[in-house]
Write a structure and sequence with these properties.
Blueprint: H1 2-10, H2 13-20, E1 59-63, H3 64-70, H4 75-79, E2 113-117, E3 120-121, E4 141-148, H5 152-155, E5 162-168, E6 174-184, E7 191-202, E8 207-218, E9 245-247, E10 267-271, E11 274-277, E12 303-315, E13 320-337, E14 341-347, H6 352-356, H7 358-365, E15 374-379, E16 386-406, E17 409-430, H8 432-439, H9 450-455, H10 472-478, E18 479-504, E19 507-525, H11 528-532, E20 544-565, E21 568-582, E22 586-600, E23 603-614, H12 618-622, E24 626-628, H13 651-661, H14 665-668, E25 678-682, E26 690-701, E27 709-726, H15 731-745, E28 760-761, E29 766-767, E30 769-771, E31 777-803, E32 814-829, E33 832-833, E34 837-839, E35 845-847, E36 850-860, E37 863-872, E38 876-877, E39 895-905, E40 910-917, E41 946-954
Parallel strand pairs: 2-5, 25-31, 34-38
Antiparallel strand pairs: 1-4, 2-3, 4-5, 6-7, 6-41, 7-8, 8-12, 9-10, 9-15, 10-11, 12-13, 13-16, 14-15, 16-17, 17-18, 18-19, 19-20, 20-21, 21-22, 22-23, 23-26, 24-25, 26-27, 27-31, 28-29, 30-31, 31-32, 32-33, 32-36, 34-35, 36-37, 37-39, 39-40, 40-41
Helix pairs in contact: 13-15
Length: 955
C-alpha cells in the first residue's frame, strides 16, 4: 500500500537529516546501501516531506547505537552530553529533586523545550509543564532528533528553545531481550535493566503490532569515604545545628554574662540546658556548632521503573491506515535530605525545661521583658532524615487515521489523551502545631499540660536544649508524614494535511496545513498540613487547580526558486505561520521564514528566522505563596557563612541594615545563619505569553572528493522577551535591587523598607523583603513578564565514515568519527552575563563557553569498539559576576570525560557488550554556590569510574 511505503520513508530520516545536519551519534557501521534510495523525507522541525532534504534548522541526531555504546539506561544521560543541552534534573539530583529527569535546550528551561514521541506531544509530569524523561524507555528508541531554536510555527507553544523528538522502533517482527548491569568501581550505584520487545505482522501484512515491556532498578548512595570530595559541606553547612541555637533579639536582648545588650550573641547548648558560646566555625570542625548536612543528602537517588508500550497500525483500505499508541510508566524514586532545620521556634517562658535549667532561666530573666518567649533554632536529628518518595504514573494514548488522498496528498487526524499522577510522600518532617504543643507551659518533664492534652491526647513534652535530648516518644509525637498529589491531564486533537500544490520549474511547491485543539488541566493537592503551613522541614505550598485551552491553525510551505542554475544548484524558501487562540492570553502569532542556497553540489548555505511563543501554564498563573530556600546571601552579614570570609558593608548598606535589624550589624558582628534565604513565591494571573526570536545562519559542507565527510557551522541567537520568571531575575536580584536602592536612600539613620519602591510590589501588596524576630532575612518573589533572556553562540559539527583502505579487513574495516562543538558567546538574563559561569548564586546553571563531544567507532569483524569523550570548559563562579558585588568564590577547571565500550556479535541472534564510563575516574569539581552536593551533579559525574555489561538477543 502507498501508506506503508510512506512509513518506511519516514523511518529513513536519520540517514539524510542526521548525516547532512550532522548528527551527534557515531554512525552505524553497516548501513543498508539501499536505505538512501528514498523518495521523500520528513524531519523534526517541519511537517513537509521533501526529496534529498537538509534541514534549515540545525538538527542533532542521537542513534540507538550511541545510546547502547554508552550503556545509558537513563535517557537524560546521553542528552546531557550534547553541547546544546544545559543539564536539567537527573538521577543524581537530590536537592532539588522530585524524581524526574528533564532536558533543557540552550538553558532556557525544561518547560520551554517541547518533547515529542513519534512526532506527537508527550504528557508533562507535573505543574512545571516539563516532561519526565523516565517515561521514555531507552531500549525502545530508534533515534532522537534534537532541533534547537524556536519551533512554535510548526508545533505550537512550549517549543521556545526547540524540540526533542524521540522516535521509537516500529514494524517490529519477532522478539528481542535486552539486559544490562552496571556498578561503580566502589561497588555501589548498581543498576539493572531488562526489556522485552516483541512484534508481529498480521492480516497478510496489512498490520503490525509492536510491544515493549521494560524494568529498571537503580541503587542510591550517600557521600562516603570513597568520594572524599562529597563532604564536608563546601557551603559551610547550616547555622541550625544539633545542639540548638538560642537567638538574641534586638528589641529584647539578653544582658547575661557573655551577651552584652544589642549584640546578636547566639548561644549553643553543648552542655544540656546550659547556654554557651555558639561556634560559627565554617570549616565544620568537631568544635563547630554548625551542622554538616552533606553526609545525609543522597548523591544518587534509588529508583525503580516499569515501562509498557504498545504500538500498532492496520491498513483499513489501500489508502487508509488506522493507528494507535499506548504508553504507560510507573516510576518510583527516593530523595533524602538532612533532618528538619526548625527555625524561629517560639518557646514559652513557662516551658518546664526553661524553668528547670537554672543557667537558661538566668538568660531569660536577664532580658528587659523576661517572660517573653525564647526564640530558638534546632536541627531535629532525633526525628530522622527527611525522606521523599516520588511515585509517578504516566498514561498516554494516541489514536487516529492516515489517508492517502492521491496526487501526493496525505491527511492525518488523531486524538491524544495523557494523564500523569505524581504522588509525593514525605517522612520525618516536623509539625509546627505539635511542636508548639510539646513546648507549652504547664506540664512536666514527662507529661504535657492538661489543657494541651485535651487537644493533643498523645502529646509528649520535648526538650530542645542540647543534642540527643529529644526522646523517641517526643520525636514520634512531633513527627509529620504527609502526602501530596498532582494530576496533569491533556487532551489534544490534530488534523494535518500535506502535499504538493503545484510543480514549479525548480521543483514541487510543498505545503503542510492543519488545525489543533489542546486542553491542559492541572490539579495540585498538597497535604492539609503542608497547605496550612504546619510544617518545618519542607516548603509550605498551597493547592492549585485550573485549566487552559487553545485552538490553533497553521500552514507552512517549501518554495523551490531555482534548481541546476549557474551558481544555484538549488535555492529554496521556507515559510510558516501559526495562529493560536488561548483562553488565557488571547490570540498569538508564531511564524518563520528562511531558506537555503546550494551554489555548488557540496556546499549548502542556510538561514532561518523564527518567532516562537509560550503561553503561561496553569501553575505560573495561580501559584500561591509557596515556600522555598534559594541560595541568597543576606547583604547585612559581616561574614559569608558559606566561605567564612569577612565582608565589608558600605555606609549606605550598613545604615539600611541598621534600620531593619534594630542594631548596627558591623558593631554587633552580625552573621547570617546560612547562605539560604527563606522565600515565598507567587504566580500571576495577568501574565502574557513569552515571545522569542531565533536566528540561525550556517553552512553545510559535504565535499564530493572525500566520501563520507560532512561538516557544518551554524551561528544562533535567541532573544526571549516577556520572559516569565521571578521579578528581578530571581530572589538574589530582588534582594540586590532592594538593597541598592535602600542604601542609596539611607541617611545616617537608614531608610525604612516601606519607603523604597524597589523593596515593595503592588501586585501582591506586600514588601518584597522582611525579617523575622531573630533578624533572619526573608523574601517574597512574584512572577512577571519582567525578564529578558538573550543567548548566542556557534555550533560546529563534523562527521566522517571511512572504509579503512590499508587494513585489508585484518586490523579493521570501518572507522567513524563525529565531533560536536558549541561555543557559548553570551547568556544574558536581565542584563547580567552568565556565559562561562557555574553555580546557583542567582540561577542554577552550568554554562561553559566551550563544550564538545567526540565519538569514534571502529569495526573489527564481529566486534565494534566505541569511544566517547566530553569536554567541559573551565568556568568562573557565578558569585563572582561583578553585578552581584560579591566575589571571592572558587571557580572550576576544565574537564575531559572518556568512555569506552565494545560489542561482540557472538551469534546471528545474540550480541554481548561491555564498557566503562568516566574511564579516568575524574572526581567532580567542588565549588562555592554549588547547586547540589558540593558540585553540579547533573553536569559532572559523581559516580566515578563505572562499569557496565549486558547482552541483547533477537529472534
Amino acid at each position: 500500500m502507498k501508506l506503508q511505503q510512506s512509513r518506511r520513508r519516514l523511518l529513513a530520516t536519520t540517514i539524510i537529516a542526521g548525516a547532512s545536519a550532522l548528527a551527534f551519534a557515531a554512525p552505524a557501521m553497516a548501513q543498508d546501501p539501499g536505505a538512501t534510495n528514498v523518495d521523500d523525507l520528513v524531519v523534526t522541525g517541519t511537517r513537509i516531506a521533501r526529496q534529498d532534504y537538509v534541514a534549515n534548522s540545525p538538527i542533532s541526531t542521537v542513534s540507538a547505537e550511541q545510546i547502547q555504546a554508552r550503556g545509558d539506561v537513563n535517557v537524560e544521560q546521553i542528552l546531557n552530553q550534547l553541547p546544546q543541552v544545559v543539564p536539567g534534573l537527573s538521577a543524581n539530583s537530590n536537592n532539588p529533586s522530585n524524581g524526574s529527569a528533564t532536558v533543557d535546550l540552550r538553558g532556557l528551561g525544561a518547560s520551554r523545550t517541547l518533547v515529542l514521541v513519534n512526532g506527537h506531544r508527550f504528557i508533562p509530569y507535573d505543574k512545571s509543564n516539563a516532561v519526565d524523561l523516565n517515561s521514555i524507555p531507552a531500549s525502545l528508541i530508534e533515534r532522537v532528533e534534537v532541533v534547537t531554536g524556536g519551533a512554535s510555527a510548526v508545533y505550537g507553544s512550549d517549543a521556545l528553545a526547540g524540540v526533542v523528538n524521540f522516535i521509537f522502533k516500529r514494524d517490529y517482527e519477532g522478539f528481542g531481550l535486552d539486559t544490562q548491569y552496571g556498578i561503580s568501581r566502589f561497588g555501589d550505584g548498581e543498576q539493572f535493566n531488562a526489556s522485552l520487545t516483541f512484534g508481529s505482522n498480521f492480516a497478510d501484512d496489512r498490520g503490525n503490532v509492536t510491544g515493549f515491556v521494560g524494568y529498571s532498578d537503580r541503587d542510591g548512595f550517600l557521600p562516603n569515604s570513597d568520594r572524599p570530595w562529597s563532604f564536608p559541606s563546601a557551603a559551610g553547612g547550616s547555622g541550625t545545628g544539633e545542639f540548638g541555637g538560642l537567638n538574641n533579639l534586638a528589641l529584647n536582648p539578653y544582658t547575661a554574662a557573655g551577651c552584652p545588650t544589642a549584640n546578636p550573641c547566639r548561644r549553643s547548648f553543648r552542655t544540656t540546658g546550659v547556654p554557651g558560646p555558639f561556634s560559627n566555625d565554617f570549616s565544620l570542625s568537631p568544635t563547630s556548632d554548625r551542622y554538616d548536612f552533606s553526609t545525609v543528602n543522597l548523591l544518587q537517588s534509588p529508583s525503580e521503573r516499569f515501562n509498557l508500550a504498545l504500538m500498532g497500525h492496520y491498513d483499513v483500505t489501500d489508502n487508509v491506515e488506522a493507528f494507535a499508541e499506548v504508553f504507560y510508566t510507573d516510576s518510583r524514586n527516593t530523595s533524602q535530605l538532612a533532618p528538619t532545620p526548625a527555625t524561629g521556634i517560639s518557646i514559652p517562658y513557662s516551658n518546664f525545661f526553661v524553668q528547670n535549667y537554672p543557667a537558661l532561666l538566668a538568660y531569660a530573666n536577664s532580658r528587659p521583658n523576661p517572660t517573653a518567649p525564647l526564640n530558638f533554632d534546632r536541627r531535629m536529628s532525633e526525628v530522622g532524615a527527611r525522606i521523599q518518595n516520588n511515585n509517578t504514573d504516566v498514561y498516554q494514548i494516541n489514536t487516529g487515521l492516515r489517508a492517502d488522498l492521491g496526487s501526493g496528498w496525505e491527511l492525518e487526524g488523531y486524538y491524544s489523551y495523557g494523564r500523569t499522577e505524581l504522588t509525593t510522600s514525605i517522612q520525618n518532617d516536623v509539625s509546627r502545631s505539635r511542636l508548639n504543643a510539646a513546648l507549652a507551659g504547664g506540664g512536666t518533664a514527662t507529661s504535657c499540660a492538661p489543657s494541651v492534652l485535651a487537644l493533643f491526647p498523645t502529646c509528649v513534652p520535648i526538650n530542645l536544649f542540647g543534642r540527643g535530648t529529644i526522646t523517641p516518644q517526643a520525636a514520634a509525637f512531633v513527627r509529620l508524614n504527609f502526602t501530596d498529589r498532582s494530576v496533569f491531564e491533556r487532551q489534544n486533537v490534530q488534523l494535518n494535511l500535506t502535499g504538493t500544490v503545484m510543480e514549479l520549474p525548480a521543483g514541487p511547491l510543498g505545503i503542510a496545513a492543519g488545525v489543533e485543539y489542546r486542553e491542559d488541566t492541572l490539579s495540585y493537592t498538597p497535604d492539609d498540613a503542608k497547605n496550612a503551613g504546619d510544617i518545618y522541614g519542607f516548603n509550605a505550598e498551597r493547592a492549585v487547580s485550573g485549566s487552559s485551552a487553545s485552538s490553533e491553525a497553521y500552514v507552512e510551505a517549501a518554495v523551490p526558486l531555482l534548481r541546476d542554475a549557474p551558481f544555484a544548484k538549488s535555492l529554496e524558501l521556507e515559510l510558516g505561520a501559526r495562529l493560536s487562540d488561548y483562553d488565557t492570553v488571547g490570540q498569538v502569532w508564531s511564524y518563520k521564514f528562511g531558506g537555503s542556497w546550494e551554489p555548488v553540489d557540496s556546499v549548502r548555505l542556510r538561514a532561518l528566522y523564527q518567532r516562537a511563543s509560550r503561553a503561561p501554564n496553569v501553575f505560573e498563573l495561580f501559584q500561591a505563596n509557596d515556600q522555598g530556600f534559594p541560595a541568597v546571601l543576606d547583604p547585612c552579614t559581616t561574614v559569608n557563612p558559606g566561605t567564612g570570609a569577612a565582608r565589608t558593608l558600605s555606609a549606605g548598606v550598613r545604615n539600611f541594615c541598621t534600620a531593619q535589624l534594630g542594631f548596627d550589624p558591623v558593631t554587633a558582628g552580625f552573621v547570617a545563619q546560612n547562605t539560604q534565604t527563606e522565600s515565598f513565591f507567587f504566580g500571576n494571573p495577568d501574565l502574557s505569553e513569552e515571545k522569542s526570536d531565533t536566528i540561525t545562519v550556517g553552512a553545510v559542507w559535504q565535499p564530493t572528493f572525500v566520501d563520507g565527510l560532512s561538516m557544518s557551522l551554524d551561528y544562533y541567537k535567541i532573544e526571549v522577551e516577556d520572559y516569565i520568571g521571578t521579578i528581578s531575575g530571581g530572589v538574589s536580584g530582588i534582594v540586590g535591587a532592594c538593597f541598592a536602592a535602600g542604601a542609596a536612600a539611607s541617611g545616617t539613620t537608614g531608610a525604612p523598607v516601606s519607603s523604597i519602591a524597589e523593596c515593595n510590589n503592588a501586585g501582591i501588596g506586600l514588601p518584597l523583603i522582611f525579617r523575622d524576630a531573630a533578624g533572619n532575612l526573608k523574601a517574597r518573589a512574584p512572577l512577571g513578564n519582567v525578564s529578558a533572556l538573550e543567548t548566542s553562540g556557534v555550533d560546529f559539527s563534523t562527521r566522517y565514515g571511512w572504509d579503512v583502505p590499508w587494513a585489508g579487513g585484518m586490523w579493521g574495516e570501518q572507522l567513524a568519527i563525529a565531533v560536536n562543538l558549541t561555543y557559548l558567546n553570551s547568556y544574558e538574563l536581565d542584563g547580567i552575563e552568565y556565559a562561562g559561569t557555574a553555580g546557583a548564586y542567582n540561577i542554577s546553571a552550568t554554562l561553559p563557553e566551550w563544550k564538545a563531544n567526540v565519538s569514534l567507532g571502529y569495526d573489527v569483524g564481529p566486534v565494534r569498539l566505541a569511544y566517547s569523550g566530553t569536554f567541559i570548559d573551565e568556568l568562573d563562579n557565578q558569585g563572582n559576576i561583578p553585578d552581584f558585588q560579591d566575589g571571592g568564590y572558587t571557580g572550576i577547571d576544565s574537564y575531559w570525560y572518556h568512555d569506552l565500550s565494545g560489542t561482540w556479535q557472538a551469534t546471528e541472534n545474540m550480541e554481548v557488550f561491555a564498557g566503562v564510563r568516566n574511564l579516568l575516574d575524574e572526581e567532580p569539581p567542588v565549588f562555592d554556590n554549588a547547586p547540589d552536593g558540593n558540585t553540579d551533579p547533573n553536569a559532572y559525574d559523581v559516580n566515578g569510574r563505572y562499569f557496565f555489561f549486558g547482552a541483547r538477543v533477537k529472534y
